[in-house]
Design goal:
single chain, 417 residues, alpha+beta, Muramoyl-pentapeptide Carboxypeptidase, domain 2, five-stranded antiparallel beta sheet, four-stranded antiparallel beta sheet, 13 helices, 13 strands, globular, disordered N terminus
Length: 417
Protein backbone atom coordinates (compact mmCIF):
# COMPACT_ATOMS: atom_id res chain seq x y z
CA UNK A 1 0.00 0.00 0.00
CA UNK A 2 1.11 3.55 -0.66
CA UNK A 3 -0.52 6.76 0.49
CA UNK A 4 -0.37 10.30 -0.88
CA UNK A 5 1.81 12.66 1.14
CA UNK A 6 -1.13 14.92 1.92
CA UNK A 7 -3.00 12.13 3.72
CA UNK A 8 -1.82 12.78 7.29
CA UNK A 9 -3.70 15.77 8.74
CA UNK A 10 -1.70 16.81 11.77
CA UNK A 11 -4.38 19.03 13.27
CA UNK A 12 -6.60 15.99 13.88
CA UNK A 13 -5.55 14.12 17.00
CA UNK A 14 -6.75 10.92 18.54
CA UNK A 15 -7.16 12.40 22.02
CA UNK A 16 -10.53 12.87 23.66
CA UNK A 17 -11.62 15.27 26.36
CA UNK A 18 -14.56 14.59 28.60
CA UNK A 19 -18.02 15.56 27.31
CA UNK A 20 -19.14 19.15 27.75
CA UNK A 21 -20.23 20.15 31.23
CA UNK A 22 -23.69 21.63 31.51
CA UNK A 23 -24.93 24.15 34.10
CA UNK A 24 -27.69 21.81 35.25
CA UNK A 25 -27.23 19.85 38.47
CA UNK A 26 -28.30 16.62 36.82
CA UNK A 27 -25.87 14.09 35.47
CA UNK A 28 -26.94 13.92 31.85
CA UNK A 29 -24.15 11.69 30.59
CA UNK A 30 -25.96 8.44 31.33
CA UNK A 31 -28.83 9.46 29.05
CA UNK A 32 -26.46 9.30 26.07
CA UNK A 33 -24.92 5.91 26.81
CA UNK A 34 -24.10 3.82 23.75
CA UNK A 35 -25.58 0.36 23.35
CA UNK A 36 -24.03 -1.90 20.75
CA UNK A 37 -26.04 -4.85 19.44
CA UNK A 38 -23.51 -7.60 18.65
CA UNK A 39 -26.05 -9.52 16.58
CA UNK A 40 -26.93 -6.70 14.18
CA UNK A 41 -23.73 -4.62 14.55
CA UNK A 42 -25.88 -1.61 15.36
CA UNK A 43 -24.87 1.37 17.51
CA UNK A 44 -27.83 2.69 19.51
CA UNK A 45 -28.01 5.97 21.42
CA UNK A 46 -31.33 7.04 22.92
CA UNK A 47 -33.22 4.11 21.36
CA UNK A 48 -32.18 5.17 17.85
CA UNK A 49 -29.61 3.61 15.55
CA UNK A 50 -26.68 5.89 14.77
CA UNK A 51 -24.00 5.53 12.10
CA UNK A 52 -20.50 6.93 12.37
CA UNK A 53 -19.20 8.84 9.36
CA UNK A 54 -16.47 11.46 9.17
CA UNK A 55 -16.48 15.15 8.29
CA UNK A 56 -15.21 14.42 4.77
CA UNK A 57 -18.26 12.30 3.93
CA UNK A 58 -20.83 14.49 5.66
CA UNK A 59 -19.60 17.64 3.95
CA UNK A 60 -19.33 15.97 0.53
CA UNK A 61 -22.80 14.47 0.77
CA UNK A 62 -24.18 17.89 1.68
CA UNK A 63 -22.25 19.52 -1.14
CA UNK A 64 -23.65 17.03 -3.66
CA UNK A 65 -27.27 17.38 -2.55
CA UNK A 66 -27.24 21.16 -2.11
CA UNK A 67 -25.07 21.75 -5.15
CA UNK A 68 -27.43 20.06 -7.59
CA UNK A 69 -29.19 23.05 -9.13
CA UNK A 70 -32.15 21.14 -10.56
CA UNK A 71 -33.57 20.46 -7.07
CA UNK A 72 -33.90 22.19 -3.70
CA UNK A 73 -31.22 20.18 -1.90
CA UNK A 74 -31.01 22.51 1.07
CA UNK A 75 -34.68 21.88 1.84
CA UNK A 76 -34.05 18.11 1.72
CA UNK A 77 -31.30 18.27 4.34
CA UNK A 78 -32.99 20.84 6.55
CA UNK A 79 -36.38 19.12 6.67
CA UNK A 80 -34.88 15.69 7.34
CA UNK A 81 -32.83 16.98 10.28
CA UNK A 82 -35.89 18.80 11.61
CA UNK A 83 -38.13 15.73 11.40
CA UNK A 84 -35.60 13.36 12.95
CA UNK A 85 -34.54 15.52 15.89
CA UNK A 86 -37.98 16.91 16.71
CA UNK A 87 -38.86 13.36 17.67
CA UNK A 88 -35.42 12.11 18.78
CA UNK A 89 -34.92 14.77 21.45
CA UNK A 90 -37.84 13.36 23.45
CA UNK A 91 -35.88 10.15 24.04
CA UNK A 92 -33.57 12.07 26.39
CA UNK A 93 -36.15 13.90 28.50
CA UNK A 94 -37.35 12.84 31.92
CA UNK A 95 -40.61 13.95 33.60
CA UNK A 96 -38.86 16.19 36.12
CA UNK A 97 -36.84 18.14 33.53
CA UNK A 98 -37.38 21.89 33.52
CA UNK A 99 -37.39 24.06 30.40
CA UNK A 100 -33.83 25.10 31.20
CA UNK A 101 -32.83 21.44 31.50
CA UNK A 102 -34.29 20.70 28.07
CA UNK A 103 -32.27 23.44 26.40
CA UNK A 104 -29.15 22.02 28.03
CA UNK A 105 -30.07 18.55 26.84
CA UNK A 106 -30.45 19.88 23.29
CA UNK A 107 -26.97 21.43 23.48
CA UNK A 108 -25.53 18.34 25.13
CA UNK A 109 -26.99 15.96 22.53
CA UNK A 110 -25.60 18.04 19.66
CA UNK A 111 -22.15 18.02 21.27
CA UNK A 112 -22.24 14.41 22.36
CA UNK A 113 -22.99 13.22 18.82
CA UNK A 114 -20.01 15.22 17.58
CA UNK A 115 -21.59 18.13 15.71
CA UNK A 116 -20.02 20.94 17.78
CA UNK A 117 -21.06 23.40 20.46
CA UNK A 118 -24.40 25.22 20.67
CA UNK A 119 -25.08 28.12 23.02
CA UNK A 120 -28.75 28.56 23.93
CA UNK A 121 -28.17 31.38 26.44
CA UNK A 122 -29.85 33.91 24.08
CA UNK A 123 -32.70 31.66 23.05
CA UNK A 124 -35.25 34.06 24.58
CA UNK A 125 -33.97 36.73 22.16
CA UNK A 126 -34.28 34.34 19.23
CA UNK A 127 -30.52 33.74 18.85
CA UNK A 128 -28.41 30.57 19.06
CA UNK A 129 -24.66 30.54 18.45
CA UNK A 130 -22.07 27.88 17.74
CA UNK A 131 -18.35 28.14 18.43
CA UNK A 132 -17.33 24.87 16.74
CA UNK A 133 -18.86 22.87 13.92
CA UNK A 134 -18.32 19.40 12.45
CA UNK A 135 -19.74 20.62 9.14
CA UNK A 136 -17.55 23.72 8.95
CA UNK A 137 -14.53 21.47 9.56
CA UNK A 138 -15.70 19.23 6.72
CA UNK A 139 -16.12 22.08 4.27
CA UNK A 140 -12.78 23.62 5.20
CA UNK A 141 -11.09 20.28 4.63
CA UNK A 142 -12.77 19.39 1.33
CA UNK A 143 -13.98 22.66 -0.18
CA UNK A 144 -11.45 25.22 0.93
CA UNK A 145 -12.46 27.60 -1.87
CA UNK A 146 -16.06 27.82 -0.64
CA UNK A 147 -17.29 31.05 0.93
CA UNK A 148 -20.85 30.30 1.92
CA UNK A 149 -22.88 29.33 4.99
CA UNK A 150 -22.77 25.55 5.38
CA UNK A 151 -24.72 24.75 8.56
CA UNK A 152 -27.96 23.53 6.97
CA UNK A 153 -28.00 20.47 9.21
CA UNK A 154 -27.78 22.72 12.28
CA UNK A 155 -30.67 24.85 11.05
CA UNK A 156 -32.76 21.70 10.78
CA UNK A 157 -31.54 20.41 14.12
CA UNK A 158 -32.56 23.65 15.82
CA UNK A 159 -35.96 23.74 14.14
CA UNK A 160 -36.47 20.19 15.31
CA UNK A 161 -35.40 20.54 18.94
CA UNK A 162 -37.25 23.84 19.34
CA UNK A 163 -40.41 22.08 18.21
CA UNK A 164 -39.62 19.11 20.45
CA UNK A 165 -39.13 21.35 23.48
CA UNK A 166 -41.79 24.07 23.00
CA UNK A 167 -44.21 22.58 20.46
CA UNK A 168 -43.65 25.62 18.22
CA UNK A 169 -42.80 25.34 14.53
CA UNK A 170 -40.23 27.99 13.60
CA UNK A 171 -37.77 28.84 10.87
CA UNK A 172 -34.08 28.96 11.78
CA UNK A 173 -31.67 30.73 9.46
CA UNK A 174 -27.91 31.02 9.70
CA UNK A 175 -26.96 34.70 9.78
CA UNK A 176 -23.18 34.27 10.19
CA UNK A 177 -20.97 31.23 9.51
CA UNK A 178 -17.42 30.37 10.47
CA UNK A 179 -16.96 28.99 6.96
CA UNK A 180 -17.25 32.60 5.77
CA UNK A 181 -14.77 33.92 8.33
CA UNK A 182 -17.11 34.73 11.21
CA UNK A 183 -15.90 34.10 14.76
CA UNK A 184 -18.98 32.00 15.47
CA UNK A 185 -21.95 30.65 13.58
CA UNK A 186 -25.11 32.58 14.50
CA UNK A 187 -28.65 31.34 13.99
CA UNK A 188 -31.76 33.53 14.06
CA UNK A 189 -35.15 32.12 15.03
CA UNK A 190 -38.12 33.31 12.97
CA UNK A 191 -41.50 32.66 14.60
CA UNK A 192 -43.55 33.63 11.54
CA UNK A 193 -43.88 30.03 10.41
CA UNK A 194 -47.45 28.78 10.05
CA UNK A 195 -47.06 25.20 8.76
CA UNK A 196 -46.26 22.43 11.24
CA UNK A 197 -43.70 19.65 11.11
CA UNK A 198 -44.82 16.46 9.39
CA UNK A 199 -43.27 13.09 10.08
CA UNK A 200 -42.59 10.51 7.37
CA UNK A 201 -44.41 7.20 7.95
CA UNK A 202 -42.25 4.19 8.71
CA UNK A 203 -43.08 0.52 8.33
CA UNK A 204 -42.42 -2.03 11.04
CA UNK A 205 -39.84 -4.55 9.89
CA UNK A 206 -39.68 -8.21 10.73
CA UNK A 207 -36.53 -8.78 8.72
CA UNK A 208 -34.12 -11.61 9.40
CA UNK A 209 -30.84 -11.55 7.55
CA UNK A 210 -29.25 -14.70 6.22
CA UNK A 211 -25.88 -15.08 4.53
CA UNK A 212 -25.96 -16.69 1.10
CA UNK A 213 -22.24 -17.39 0.77
CA UNK A 214 -19.40 -18.72 2.86
CA UNK A 215 -17.27 -15.99 4.41
CA UNK A 216 -13.52 -15.89 3.84
CA UNK A 217 -11.16 -16.30 6.80
CA UNK A 218 -8.23 -14.14 7.85
CA UNK A 219 -5.80 -13.52 10.69
CA UNK A 220 -7.92 -10.63 11.97
CA UNK A 221 -9.84 -11.06 15.23
CA UNK A 222 -12.92 -9.06 14.32
CA UNK A 223 -14.58 -9.55 17.69
CA UNK A 224 -11.59 -8.10 19.51
CA UNK A 225 -11.52 -5.08 17.22
CA UNK A 226 -15.24 -4.41 17.55
CA UNK A 227 -15.18 -4.75 21.33
CA UNK A 228 -12.26 -2.33 21.56
CA UNK A 229 -13.85 0.25 19.25
CA UNK A 230 -17.20 0.08 21.05
CA UNK A 231 -15.36 1.02 24.24
CA UNK A 232 -13.59 3.96 22.62
CA UNK A 233 -14.99 7.42 23.54
CA UNK A 234 -16.53 8.34 20.20
CA UNK A 235 -18.43 11.26 21.70
CA UNK A 236 -17.90 14.99 21.64
CA UNK A 237 -15.00 16.54 23.53
CA UNK A 238 -15.10 19.98 25.15
CA UNK A 239 -15.61 21.46 21.68
CA UNK A 240 -18.38 19.02 20.85
CA UNK A 241 -16.15 17.32 18.25
CA UNK A 242 -14.92 13.74 17.93
CA UNK A 243 -11.30 13.71 16.70
CA UNK A 244 -10.27 10.10 16.03
CA UNK A 245 -8.50 8.16 13.27
CA UNK A 246 -7.09 11.46 11.92
CA UNK A 247 -10.59 12.72 11.05
CA UNK A 248 -13.59 14.22 12.82
CA UNK A 249 -16.33 11.66 13.42
CA UNK A 250 -20.03 12.17 14.12
CA UNK A 251 -22.77 9.84 15.34
CA UNK A 252 -25.70 10.50 13.01
CA UNK A 253 -29.10 8.81 13.10
CA UNK A 254 -29.31 6.32 10.24
CA UNK A 255 -32.80 7.67 9.56
CA UNK A 256 -31.31 11.05 8.62
CA UNK A 257 -29.01 9.56 5.99
CA UNK A 258 -31.80 7.38 4.65
CA UNK A 259 -34.27 10.26 4.36
CA UNK A 260 -31.94 12.65 2.57
CA UNK A 261 -30.71 10.02 0.12
CA UNK A 262 -34.20 8.70 -0.65
CA UNK A 263 -35.55 12.22 -1.19
CA UNK A 264 -32.52 13.20 -3.25
CA UNK A 265 -33.01 10.20 -5.54
CA UNK A 266 -36.75 10.85 -5.85
CA UNK A 267 -36.25 14.53 -6.63
CA UNK A 268 -33.61 13.78 -9.22
CA UNK A 269 -35.74 11.07 -10.79
CA UNK A 270 -38.51 13.61 -11.37
CA UNK A 271 -35.99 15.65 -13.33
CA UNK A 272 -34.95 12.64 -15.40
CA UNK A 273 -31.62 12.48 -13.56
CA UNK A 274 -31.86 9.21 -11.66
CA UNK A 275 -28.62 7.80 -13.11
CA UNK A 276 -26.79 11.03 -12.36
CA UNK A 277 -28.02 10.97 -8.76
CA UNK A 278 -26.96 7.36 -8.34
CA UNK A 279 -23.47 8.09 -9.64
CA UNK A 280 -23.15 11.08 -7.32
CA UNK A 281 -24.01 8.98 -4.26
CA UNK A 282 -21.63 6.25 -5.41
CA UNK A 283 -18.94 8.91 -5.74
CA UNK A 284 -19.67 10.25 -2.24
CA UNK A 285 -19.37 6.74 -0.80
CA UNK A 286 -16.12 6.06 -2.63
CA UNK A 287 -14.52 9.32 -1.52
CA UNK A 288 -15.80 8.60 2.00
CA UNK A 289 -13.99 5.26 2.05
CA UNK A 290 -10.73 6.64 0.69
CA UNK A 291 -10.72 9.54 3.17
CA UNK A 292 -12.19 7.92 6.28
CA UNK A 293 -10.50 4.54 5.98
CA UNK A 294 -7.11 5.95 5.03
CA UNK A 295 -7.36 8.06 8.19
CA UNK A 296 -7.99 4.84 10.09
CA UNK A 297 -5.18 2.81 8.53
CA UNK A 298 -2.52 5.45 9.31
CA UNK A 299 -3.83 6.25 12.80
CA UNK A 300 -2.35 5.48 16.20
CA UNK A 301 -5.43 3.39 16.95
CA UNK A 302 -4.72 1.17 13.94
CA UNK A 303 -1.08 0.61 14.88
CA UNK A 304 -1.94 -0.18 18.49
CA UNK A 305 -4.96 -2.43 17.93
CA UNK A 306 -5.02 -3.86 14.41
CA UNK A 307 -1.51 -3.77 12.94
CA UNK A 308 -0.24 -6.50 15.32
CA UNK A 309 -2.82 -8.87 13.80
CA UNK A 310 -1.71 -8.22 10.22
CA UNK A 311 0.41 -11.14 9.02
CA UNK A 312 -0.15 -10.76 5.28
CA UNK A 313 -1.29 -8.00 2.93
CA UNK A 314 -4.88 -9.21 2.69
CA UNK A 315 -5.33 -8.81 6.45
CA UNK A 316 -5.44 -5.03 5.96
CA UNK A 317 -8.75 -5.45 4.15
CA UNK A 318 -10.24 -7.62 6.88
CA UNK A 319 -9.07 -5.15 9.51
CA UNK A 320 -10.83 -2.30 7.71
CA UNK A 321 -14.03 -4.32 7.35
CA UNK A 322 -13.98 -5.05 11.08
CA UNK A 323 -13.70 -1.33 11.78
CA UNK A 324 -16.64 -0.47 9.51
CA UNK A 325 -18.74 -3.09 11.28
CA UNK A 326 -17.99 -1.36 14.58
CA UNK A 327 -19.07 1.97 13.06
CA UNK A 328 -22.57 0.66 12.28
CA UNK A 329 -22.36 0.54 8.49
CA UNK A 330 -23.91 -2.85 7.98
CA UNK A 331 -22.36 -6.14 9.16
CA UNK A 332 -20.05 -6.71 6.18
CA UNK A 333 -18.18 -9.90 5.42
CA UNK A 334 -15.69 -10.77 2.70
CA UNK A 335 -16.63 -13.64 0.39
CA UNK A 336 -13.75 -13.47 -2.08
CA UNK A 337 -10.73 -11.20 -2.34
CA UNK A 338 -8.07 -11.10 -5.03
CA UNK A 339 -5.77 -8.24 -3.98
CA UNK A 340 -5.68 -5.48 -6.55
CA UNK A 341 -8.09 -7.23 -8.90
CA UNK A 342 -11.52 -7.95 -7.40
CA UNK A 343 -13.50 -8.08 -4.19
CA UNK A 344 -16.84 -9.65 -3.29
CA UNK A 345 -18.59 -8.78 -0.03
CA UNK A 346 -21.91 -9.45 1.63
CA UNK A 347 -23.79 -7.14 4.02
CA UNK A 348 -26.35 -8.75 6.28
CA UNK A 349 -28.14 -5.59 7.40
CA UNK A 350 -26.87 -2.45 5.70
CA UNK A 351 -28.54 0.66 7.05
CA UNK A 352 -29.44 1.92 3.57
CA UNK A 353 -31.34 -1.21 2.57
CA UNK A 354 -33.24 -1.49 5.84
CA UNK A 355 -33.97 2.23 5.83
CA UNK A 356 -35.43 2.03 2.35
CA UNK A 357 -37.68 -0.84 3.42
CA UNK A 358 -38.86 1.17 6.44
CA UNK A 359 -39.69 4.32 4.47
CA UNK A 360 -40.58 3.06 0.98
CA UNK A 361 -41.07 -0.69 1.05
CA UNK A 362 -39.69 -3.11 -1.52
CA UNK A 363 -37.69 -1.84 -4.48
CA UNK A 364 -37.18 -3.12 -8.00
CA UNK A 365 -33.45 -2.49 -7.93
CA UNK A 366 -30.71 -2.25 -5.25
CA UNK A 367 -30.62 0.89 -3.10
CA UNK A 368 -27.30 0.74 -1.19
CA UNK A 369 -25.59 3.49 -3.16
CA UNK A 370 -23.25 4.68 -0.41
CA UNK A 371 -22.05 1.19 0.50
CA UNK A 372 -21.56 0.34 -3.17
CA UNK A 373 -19.30 3.35 -3.48
CA UNK A 374 -17.53 2.47 -0.23
CA UNK A 375 -16.71 -1.00 -1.60
CA UNK A 376 -14.95 0.59 -4.59
CA UNK A 377 -13.22 3.07 -2.30
CA UNK A 378 -11.78 0.30 -0.13
CA UNK A 379 -10.06 -1.24 -3.14
CA UNK A 380 -8.91 2.15 -4.40
CA UNK A 381 -7.41 2.89 -0.99
CA UNK A 382 -5.63 -0.43 -0.58
CA UNK A 383 -4.38 -0.83 -4.14
CA UNK A 384 -4.59 2.53 -5.91
CA UNK A 385 -1.76 4.98 -6.45
CA UNK A 386 -1.47 8.74 -6.16
CA UNK A 387 -3.79 11.33 -4.67
CA UNK A 388 -7.39 10.84 -3.63
CA UNK A 389 -8.54 12.20 -6.99
CA UNK A 390 -6.25 9.79 -8.86
CA UNK A 391 -7.45 6.78 -6.89
CA UNK A 392 -11.19 7.44 -7.11
CA UNK A 393 -12.73 5.84 -10.20
CA UNK A 394 -10.12 3.12 -10.65
CA UNK A 395 -12.51 0.34 -9.57
CA UNK A 396 -16.04 -0.48 -10.68
CA UNK A 397 -18.51 -1.51 -7.99
CA UNK A 398 -21.97 -3.01 -8.32
CA UNK A 399 -24.60 -4.22 -5.87
CA UNK A 400 -25.73 -7.53 -7.35
CA UNK A 401 -28.46 -8.29 -4.79
CA UNK A 402 -30.19 -6.18 -2.15
CA UNK A 403 -32.37 -6.66 0.89
CA UNK A 404 -34.76 -4.15 -0.68
CA UNK A 405 -35.43 -6.62 -3.49
CA UNK A 406 -36.69 -9.48 -1.31
CA UNK A 407 -33.19 -10.84 -0.66
CA UNK A 408 -31.85 -11.82 2.77
CA UNK A 409 -28.60 -9.92 2.30
CA UNK A 410 -26.85 -7.43 0.03
CA UNK A 411 -23.91 -8.40 -2.19
CA UNK A 412 -21.26 -6.17 -3.72
CA UNK A 413 -18.86 -6.92 -6.56
CA UNK A 414 -15.75 -4.77 -7.16
CA UNK A 415 -13.36 -5.12 -10.09
CA UNK A 416 -10.38 -3.20 -11.41
CA UNK A 417 -11.27 -1.11 -14.44
Amino acid sequence: MSFPKEYPEQRYTATHSQPMNTPTAKNLTQRFNLKFDPHTYRRIIGKKEVVIHCHHYNARLQNIIEGTKQINGKAIILSAAEEIFSDYIHNFFEPEDTLADKWQIAAKLYAHLGYGCLDFSQISQGIVTSSSSHFVEGWKAGFIESNCPVCTFTEGYLQGVIHGITGESVYVREKACMNMGADTCQFIIDQSRTNSITYPPQRSLNFKSKPTSQFAKSNIDEGKIINALVEMPFYGNNQGLVPAFNVYLANTPADFYNLICIRFMESMKKQGLFSTAKNLLLFAGEVCAVNTLRGIIISAEWYELIAPMVQEESDNLYGLIAVTNALGWGNWHVINYEPGERLQMEALNGYEALGYLEYKGEAKEPQCFTLTGVAAGIMALLHGEGTVEERVGTYASEESQCICCQETSCKFQVELL
